[in-house]
Amino acid sequence: MFNLIKKDKEKEGSRKEKKEKKERMSAAELRSLEEMSMRRGFFNLKREAKRESKNKVEISNPIPIKVASTNELSLTDIESDEFSNRSSMALDDQISVASSTDDLKGEGGGQDGHRSSVRDRVAHFGSLAKQNSSQMGQMMKRFSFSQRSKEESPSEGSTPSGQNSAAPSPQVESKVFNMLRKHSQRVQPEVADTKKVFIPELVDKIFPAPLQLPTVVAPSAPETRELELQRRNTGDFGFSLRRTTMLDCSPDGGVYRRVVHFAEPGAGTKDLALGLVPGDRLVEINGRNVENKSRDEIVEMIRQSGDTVRLKVQPILELSELSRCWLRNIEGLRREARHVKTEEQITAEQAWYGSEKVWLVHKEGFSLATVLKTECGSLPEGRVKIKLEHDGTILDVDEDDIEKANPPTYDRSEDLASLVYLNESSMMHCLRQRYGGNLIHSFAGPNMVVINPLSTPSMYSEKVMHMFKGCRREDTAPHVYAVAQSAYRNLLTTQQDQSIVLLGKSGSGKTTNCQHLVQYLVSIAGSTGKIFSAEKWQAVYTILEAFGNCSTTMNMNASRFSHVVSLDFDQAGQVASASIQTMLLDKLRVSRRPEAESTFNVFYYVMAGADSALRTELHLNQLNESSAFGIHSHSKTEDKQRAVQQFTKLQAAMKVLGISVEEQRALWLILGAIYHLGAAGATKAGRRQFAHHEWAQKAAYLLGCTLDELSSLIFKNQTRGMQPLFRGGTDDAGTGDNLGSKFTALECLESMAAGLYSEVFTVVISLINRALKSSQHSLCSILIVDTPGFQNPRLAQQQRGATFEELCHNYTQERLQTLFHERTFVQELERYKEENIELVLDDVESSSSLSIAAIDQAPPQALVRTLARMEEARGLLWLMEEEGVKPGGSEEIMLERLFSYYSSGLGENKEGSLLLRGEKSHLFLLGHSHGTDWVEYNVQGWLGHAKSNPAAQSAATLLQDSQKKNISGLFLGRASGTTVLSGSIAGLEGSSQLALRRATSMRKTFTTGVAAVKKKSHCIQVKLQVDALIDMVRRSKVHFVHCLLPKAESVGGSDLRVPHGESSDSGLMTLDVGLLRAQLRGSKLLDALRIYRQGYPDHMVFSEFRRRFDVLAPHLTKKHGRNDIVPDEKRAVQELLESLELEKSSYHLGLSKVFFRAGTLSMLEEQRDVQTRRNISLFQAACRGYLARQAFKKRKIQDLAIRCIQKNIKKNRGVKGWPWWKLFTTVRPLIEVQLTEEQIRGKDEEIQQLKQKLEKMEKERNELRLNSDRLESRMTELSTELADERNTAESASQLLEAETSERLRLEKDMKDLQTKFDCMKKQTESMEMEVMEARLIRASELNGEMDDDDTGQTQ
What we know:
- The chain is α+β, with helices and mostly antiparallel strands.
- 49% of the residues lie in helices and 12% in strands.
- The protein is built from 41 helices and 30 strands.
- The protein has a 7-stranded mixed sheet with strand order 14-15-27-16-21-19-20, sandwiched between helices. A 5-stranded antiparallel sheet has the order 12-11-10-9-13.
- The two termini are 51 Å apart.
């Protein structure tokens, strides 16, 4: 025993030496050492973690060993008895897999085993070794370790992320997770996990002082203008009156509504010279105040005015910047002259800079302070002394806690990039001040920032649209119309496709701004024959809001689908055709949705607004109080009245778009059937059938089928259902009872309702596109992308986890944010690198969001899933698809696998990790927007999305086979086309070249690579749809609009509460600073503005720049001539820039492009416009001179002709009395009469023959045209199908080649192993022979000795 204790001490000494040696090793040496240990079959245990915590011992990666009770491994049999439990734990004190730290505490043997002495452990191990020697040998044979060193997935108590360790064996991975699931279910009721999750805050600094936000200063009232207008010949003065109500602030800070009358110019061009601007509020008429007068009184005062009327107007705050900018443009002021500062402003700014004002950043926001000068050495390094402005408190803070403040003249800067000190606090201060002054739009470099107002502003009208027509961005004030005008101007000048992407949270106003963008483009660009009117687009959005919007906790009218509006323009810049593509419809909301949220609006419209005849036809006279889908009519009277009005508006919109009464009736029938299916319900146990057959009979009647057929399609097909969407993996992944697994009756009913509504929504999109399509030729297009915003139930004070649909919408927004990051950072830096431009950027983070990988990251070899690749990291969508078809798969196992790839331990925020465990086993937190928006998700029931329910697939067949002609005709016509892509993307109609190109691009996304195999998977479809959207947008020039949410309480319908640091009497136009900071950091706007200011955002190719701006240097134009190509373009551009006398720091010549600082290119454009106007004036003068000379020549010829006519008249007067002349004039017409009649008769016959010939040719031409159109459409369909089949064949060939190579490799390995086995067998046989020979020799020797003994005894 003493020898054992001595050996134990020697082992501890050797462990210390090994530990010191390991600490001196490099990372590569540690990896090689671990790899060698794994090859030898040793477990790599975390000894350091075991010494730090008695309750934690980690294995580098989850070791493929069964911790739960099993008959295979008696070494770790926990439930056998307490003695064996202690003995098994004595191997490593307490083995814990990363999925749980408390699973092994239930038996109570961990502490005793840990406190046991060395002698007890040795005795226990010796007894177990004797009992399990045979099982241990078999166990070691079953374990196979990877030959490659994998990066260790972060888990609780694991090593740092930079350290690598061996990966688990792929052969037993599924068994390990099944074991964990069973064991966690057994131990979970005994141990409750109450550990709180720590979510990192953006700013957690607090200071021992009462901190306040800077006061939102009320903006000064805009200047009034006095105008004198003359009465016209038509009797009016050329302006119109418009009455509206708007919010206004009282002197005490309160908010109230008041009636305002606007005096705005008319629609004619002459009306612009009046001096009136849209948004001018009428104050006085002929010196009398009219602010409190009615419209009739104002009209009577204007009518009683004489030939002139004197008006006094004042712009409203919302349009004050636009009005000021418009008037300066009319006056022709240069941009430099607009921003000239007065001496008082310059003096105030110098005093401000001298006082060194700063922002103190703290948890509640930021506060204004002054840096105090201190003696050198009085404060530690990195500390400063400041004095707060609001109360004079003096604080010692870190230098990192303060940011420089801008002078008050920059408080309402139109462009955030123009701030002298560009930092987060200055941006928030500027946005707060602007929002307090009803200025909701702000430029952020090339991007636009829009803060959603809480009231309907008066800044959107057709007259305001015309103020932006033809303007450059530098000549306009911040407005969403400026983004549309910039995109339209770029489309005309570059003939390149443009895209406008709206980003932001739910309720931030993205859909509303999308409507404004579409209305502006349609109104300003116009269309041939005015086929695209504002009324038609208003009807489109009325239908989309009815069928695709609902009420949520974040937004009272939230969009539950993503859509892209495609406007195609012709050569003249007019709208030639349009279409809408939709994706990611939240169709399960029909049957299942979060608490306190509604279903789609159209159900409430139909139940409240249907007339008596329609209500009788839909069997809605008596509504069921209980519904499995939770669809109930409104209980409040005002809500019912609003629903009735909306239904009338919806019917009128359908009429505008040409949707017939029968088509509308078919839609109402299906919606009524969905309602009756919810009222019918389904049984919870026993036979799968409807719970209330009388309601199911009504649904069957409305759908045009029998009750038996409906019941069979919903409940009976499930036994054949659910074919696995995933092939490959472990051997037991394709076996088991999963193929024949059945859905519950309620799940089948919900799937049928969701499938029916999906078909209805798709056909509605088809009907809309039918009204928008056109056969005109189009050149390029503008895409407007609108998706549901970020969803976070905690933001709306909802104590629930987010759903899978909300995850999909958040994932879409993340991908669009990544596109913004790619266009703003990645492409710019790559462009600088390609052009050999060295640029040093300060404090710019160039890493994209890491949360996307946790959702959609696919394994490197997604087509071939072999055993050796099962341990590769994959995202949540792929894990859902695998666990949904794996026997025994569950959400808990899915989460464990996800955490093993991407997360740190429970509640721990490992640096760089954006995935945290929740307080319960089915909850997890994901840090969206670069970790600024942590959303808690509830994964219960998520695997149902990965399973293909045949009831949903039967919905299309049910509608196409309906006995009602209006339903079957509507859906049979769509079934023959290609309007839906893989059941996900709708609205791919269109015969124009651009529409076909968009459809082909989306189909390519679904038919190449892994998509060809996984496109039927419901989970992978989410990624493929977003991929198709991003790929379509990436091909164009993208303009981003960042929509910000002012405060969370304003959108959910709850009571308004005071945000951080705001006073209670500050009115409605205030911002939640914490929410604003999170949105700004998540969007990376500050970094985008820094790279915009420090870099060269504008660039042009040498040849294009020379051709465009050579008008500014006429002498160089004469030198190079009018040639399009110059031998040395770079030299020509350098000479042109030198002649323009630009600062050398404002531009940089690359290898093929010239780069400009922000604002330089716009200045050159303005100079070019001035020079072009001067040249055009000279050209007009030359043209007018030429026309005047031509007119003079014409007058001379006319004078000569008049003289000739006068001469002939004089001669005629001399002979008109001559008798022979009279006889000649009388007989001459009689001679020609007969000849004329014969000629007319011949011509008539010839005309008849030509008419018959023309009719015949016209008929033949129409037939040929019809045949040609039919053949072209057929050829298009065949080419599309051929492309799909070709892509599928290529993917299948790739899969076959990969599988073939894998099979050959495995065969080669098997041959090598067989060879080794044969060698080992031969060696074994030879050794056996040697052993036998040795035994024989030994036996012979023993026999000889025995003979000798016998001989000796005999002697």
